[in-house]
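re: ur question from yesterday

yeah so i grabbed the chain u mentioned. its 273 aa long if i counted rite. heres the sequnce exactly as i have it in my notes:
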Amino acid sequence: MFKIGDFSRLTLVTVKALRYYDEIGLLKPVKVDQFTGYRYYSAEQLPRLNYILALKDLGLSLEDIALLMQESLSPAQMRDIFILKKAELAQRVTDEQKRLERVEKLLIRLEQEGKMSDYQVTLKKLEPMLIASVRDTLPTYGDCGPLFGEIYKYLAKKLVFKPAGPPLMLIHDPEYKEKDVDVEIAVPIAKAVKGSDRVKVYELPAAEVACTVYKGAYSGINAGYQALLTWCEANGYQPLSPCRELYFTSPNDLEDQTKNVTEIQFPVKKASG
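ran it thru and got these structure tokens back, copy pasting raw so excuse formatting
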């Protein structure tokens, strides 16, 4: 028999790992000294340990490995575990391939422009969001301030004092317009309240979005939009409506407009062909 330290050196498995395998019942020592608490292992346990290590190398969790090592597990049940792992690995390969493509696009732009872009674009999967909103056609985007006030005043009457996230604007026009813009001002809320003729309360659906952060006065935000459109075209994504602006700062709270922080979000889908 081998003490745990000797067994660790022999198998190249840390003492910490062996102790953990013992705790979860994956590999119990053949003997534990009742006086010293020393764990002892035998050479006959090497095949079982090697099997554990082989399965771990495939990326299986210790929970899955414990299931696979049950004698009562049928071949069909074992097959199901490996099929699920295969699907997981295939998805991971696909995700990494997409990441590789984005790195290659970035390298091309870096070589062309000689510097990193001011706008870094990321993909996010947004969860559904409960919002209170007002949609209206405004003369310009700069006229949206009263709509924010209208929503916050309404929520205050409903005793909703704290929003569940930063306020946002959804732009429903399919293309850029300078006037008569179709916008929806929204505030995330944690609990549903009754809406009105003007204030709608509903769940904004989940979406995959390409997003970038714009810092500065709102008069220059078109640069952020252009960066997103360029990224979508270069990476084979089609932008969808409505796009969103998420406001992390309020112009009413800042004297220096250059400190404004806005996240621009384009719902996207992979372009066909």
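noticed a couple things. The chain has three domains: 2-68, 74-115, 122-270. also The two ends are 63 Å apart (CA to CA).
anyway ttyl
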